Amino acid sequence: MKQLSLFVFTLLILGNFSCSTDSISKEEEQITDEDVYFPPLQSTIWETKSPEELHWNTDKLPQLLSYLEETNTKGFIILHQGKIVVEQYMNAHDSSKVWYWASAGKTLTTATTGIAQKEGLLAISDKVSDYLGTGWTSSPLAKENLITIENLLQMDSGLSDTNGDNVSPDNLEYMADAGTRWAYHNVYVKLQDVIATTSNTTYKEYFNTKLRDKIGMSGTWIDVSDLNVYWSDTRSMARFGLLISENGRWENTQIIPSTFLNAATNTSQNINEAYGYLWWLNGKSSYHLPQSQGTFDGSLIPNAPTDMYAALGKNDQKLYIIPSKDLVIIRMGDSAEEENFALSSYDTNLWAKINDLLP
After folding, report:
1. Residue ranges of the alpha helices (H) in the chain?
2. Nearest CA to 172 among 126, 127, 128, 136?
3. For 99-145, what is each residue's pLDDT tens digit?
4. Interatomic CA distance for residues 75 and 50, integer angstroms
5. Which SS3 state, helix, strand or coil, does residue 25 take?
6. 10 Å Cβ neighbour count for 303?
7. If we measure between CA atoms, which residue out of 154, 311, 343 comes closest to residue 245?
8. Do the Cβ atoms of 160 and 174 come closer than 8 Å?
9. Which PANTHER family match (predicted)?
10. What are 260-317's pLDDT values in tens digits?
11. Cα four-point dihedral sign 333, 335, 341, 346
12. Nearest 5 degrees, angle CA 269-CA 270-CA 274?
């Protein structure tokens, strides 16, 4: 106990630690959790477990895999406590080929923002203009100065979402005060500019060093028109999902602060209950959709677990995290039915098949 007290005292003196004894205990409990498996870095080794040992309904697995293939899936993985239970590639895809994350990659920017805040490079309560200077929008200065980093994470900057994906100042027009209107908007990408500016490097370099390489991901950011899109193999998305499911921890290293991730994966504002910091949240009483100002009653994906949260990308890129079941589920591929921005009817249809498999 004396050693622990000395350790905490030393960290406090160094200015690297500021939390209660209760939070110390919780963090230590996370770090020493031996039930979760982490695949080694720079290796193709990834331990598996069978659906049989989990008492899953294995007779339903062929139906799930057939459905995935029929609906243009390329890569599909289910992890349980970090180990691979299901991994399948189809439709001319394989484990070495890359695919785009689309808007599911927004959550990579969330994670990188949390790391930058941990390192003291920014605070999400800061004005965006503190880092990018004034005039990064075409809003009146007083309105621009209302927009914080957190507003970009929450999608409630108040900027117009009617001018396409280009984020030049002329296209970022004032529509409402920050915090009063939720709209799915590519302006979140300005977070990457903030991180590049405050870290005195490029966003790609910061992301690679602080996140990608630390958990053994592969992949890269590619500029596509006005979008910055992440491409990787399917296992890299699974690695990221595992990191998030373990509250930002990879083995014995806390990469993303757990307190930040807790805020990121819970309702972040009072307009769209089903949205955190670029994460979609299931089990809420209502939700908003991209390109809509309407409120829809009910849960985002009614037949999925209520505690599930998800990274959802165009044309049915899916990363589902289900804490109550210790599951991470990945789906990459072409659109299953028709083009979409994030949520689609495919989520409900796919979960019907997944539910048949699970006990």
Report:
1. 2-14, 21-31, 61-70, 106-118, 129-132, 141-144, 149-154, 190-199, 203-207, 234-245, 258-264, 345-357
2. 136
3. 999 999 999 999 999 999 999 999 999 999 999 999 999 999 999 99
4. 18
5. helix
6. 14
7. 311
8. yes
9. BETA-LACTAMASE-RELATED, BETA-LACTAMASE-RELATED DOMAIN-CONTAINING PROTEIN
10. 999 999 999 999 999 999 999 999 999 999 888 999 999 999 999 999 999 999 999 9
11. negative
12. 75
Query: What pLDDT is attached to residue 33?
Result: 65
Would you say 329 and 322 are in contact if contact means Cβ atoms under 8 Å apart?
yes
* Two structure tokens written together for 323: 């804490």
pLDDT digits (tens, 9 = 90+) for 189-208: 999 999 999 999 999 999 99
Q: Which of 294, 299, 311 is nearest to 107 (CA)?
A: 311
**Which residues contact residue 177 at a Cβ distance below 8 angstroms, ignoring those fewer than 6 apart?**
143, 146, 158
Contact 102, 239 (CB under 8 A): no
Q: Determine the distance from the C-alpha atom of residue 286 to the mean position of all C-alpha atoms in its chain, rounded to a whole number.
A: 20
CB 5 within 8 A of CB 50: no
Residue with tokens 């399948």: 88
